[in-house]
Input
Amino acid sequence: MHYFAHHIGDFMRDTAHLELEEEAVYRRLIDRYYLDEKPFEDNLGKICRSIRARGSEDLVQAMLEEFFTQDNGVWRHSRIDAEVEKYREKSEKARKSANARWNKSGSNANAERTHSGGNANHKPITNNQKPINQGESSLSENSSGTLIDINWNPPLTCLQQIADNVGVDAFFVLDCVPGFSAHFSGKTVNDPIAELQKWVTRENQFKNK
Output
């Protein structure tokens, strides 16, 4: 997960007794846990490396023992596990909903979907909108396109530009990303930012029907 709700009141309540370094280590632990969407392997050295805390093994161990639970060779965080499960359920629901809309939209949508995955001459859409400068998106692409997975997210700099082009707010674009990444997961897309803009446009049209 690249985005999660940070409940400031709950966090401050749970960490009010921590010193500055303790709080920093705990925050890095939960950020890494959310990012990887899985418990920590019970390997202190590996955990410390993953959160850039080498040399602070005692501190990391203390935070693990206080906020995490050891279970069958891993360290679990029950609240994060619950949030990850909800995220996965939401992504699956978005994927099924998106697939249903694609199927309902008919042959034009199917042709467009195929086009996005294999046409090397694909160009960003304009439709009298301001084209997105793909060079500014830093998507680690190659000549074959970008392989999308369930956790794919666009660069933050593109969110507002897509929002402006489509006429929605950036939060709407952000809400569209899980469905987009779930729908195209495992597929190579030549221009994912332009395709995401098409997706957001379509989602906005469905919303306003």
The chain has nine helices and five strands.
